[in-house]
Amino acid sequence: MDKLKLSDYGRIIKEYYLLASSSSNGTWFLESEAFKQGEYSKEDYLELVNDIEKMRASGVNDIDLIIEVAPFDNMQGDVAVTFYGSFYDLFERPKATYHLLGHEDYEIEI
């Protein structure tokens, strides 16, 4: 399977990718309170569900083991979404382009 492009996905996927990239944890949680308090909306939730289906269609057959989502209208407990360690590895790493005077541009992975 080819790496996924983060730019093809929505708000929650992007924000949790950034969290995962700056964290040494192996699991990341989106708490149900974030929806109840309005940090995320039902539209954000539906976009996440759609993103998960896009990932499955892109060949991530075990996506349900990588991102676990509680039903929006029946969130029990504190956790609405759990992102497991291999979530971060699904995506291409961003590249940085450096410009040197008198030299061609070059890219490196960060």
Number of helices: 4
Low-confidence runs of at least 5 consecutive residues: none
What profile does the largest beta sheet have?
3 strands, antiparallel
- What's the N-to-C terminus distance? 21 Å
Computed over alpha carbons, the radius of gyration is 16 Å
Number of strands: 5
Helix content: 25-40%
Label this structure with key terms.
110 residues, alpha+beta, 3-stranded antiparallel β-sheet, two-stranded antiparallel sheet, 4 helices, 5 strands
Can you give a write-up of this model?
The protein is α+β, with helices and mostly antiparallel strands. Helices cover 32% and strands 20% of the residues. The strands form two sheets. A three-stranded antiparallel beta sheet has the order 1-3-2. It has a two-stranded antiparallel sheet with strand order 4-5. β4 (95-98) and β5 form a beta hairpin. The chain is globular and about 35 Å long. The two termini are 21 Å apart. The mean pLDDT is 87.
Write the layout of secondary structure elements.
Blueprint (H helix, E strand, L loop, with lengths): L10 H11 L5 E5 L1 H4 L5 H16 L5 H4 E3 L9 E6 L10 E4 L7 E4 L1
Antiparallel strand pairs: 1-3, 2-3, 4-5
Concise synopsis of the structure shown:
Helix content is 32%, strand content 20%.
